[in-house]
Specification:
By secondary structure, this protein is an alpha+beta fold. It has two domains: about 110 residues, Trna Endonuclease, Chain: A, domain 1; about 60 residues, Winged helix-like DNA-binding domain superfamily/Winged helix DNA-binding domain (Arc Repressor Mutant, subunit A), CATH 1.10.10. It has eight helices and eleven strands. The protein has a four-stranded mixed sheet, with helices on both faces. A three-stranded antiparallel sheet has the order 9-11-10. Strands 1-2 form a two-stranded antiparallel sheet. A hairpin with a 7-residue loop joins strand 1 and strand 2. The longest helix is centred in the last third of the chain and has 13 residues.
Length: about 250
Amino acid sequence: MSTADSMNQAGGTRPDGGRSMPPPFVPPLISDASRRIIVPQKGSLRGALVTRDGKPRIINYESNAERRVLLVLLARPDVVDVREQVEPVRFVDADGKARGHTFDFKVLRRNGQTTLIAVKQSQWVERHPEFQETLACIAAQVPRSIADRVVLMTELDASRDAVHNAKLIHSVRADGTESHVDALRKITASLIGTTTVGSLVAASGLFGLGFRAVVRLIDDGTLRVVGTTRIDYGTKVTLVSRSEDRP
């Protein structure tokens, strides 16, 4: 939650004019990864983030590529859950040897489809072409009760603009003031064609808070960004019609 909104909620006013107590702190759920995070080597990146959904949960990552991919996955409107380091998937390799592979993420989509995702640096993938053969072998054997698809993702699947937008969406999901979103929702209800984020913010008179409210409307599927650009005041957006799929 942003500092301003935290203060607004924590500093609510009771009917008698007194200050209400802030809601009790509820810690996020701990990571349910199947193995502990690997001790970092020099120059590597290890960390965790907390989801901003109805049940905040800690998700660990073990590289910058994993962090970038994780942010982009969590920001996708068709993704409802992401789990990291799930139980190893058992398979038989090309030589007939039984093996196990721990995928970096397991993603549940809104349509019920489950995807196992392996995250690697693109240069590493180029040096190890056999890894894609291993993933193909796993995909051919994995039961549908575990996953529908097996996918390889690299840092190239999480561009700078995509990560910027994902960070922004992750941030605004913590905003607690619905009145700003309601105000922008009324403004966009009659939108025909495209407009810019800046125009909507100006019409609302809410300045920075209006910008964050517009991003929340993008996140909930009310507005759609035109193109794949970074979200800023000049970004073009359009209203999602009822015939289009919304989250």
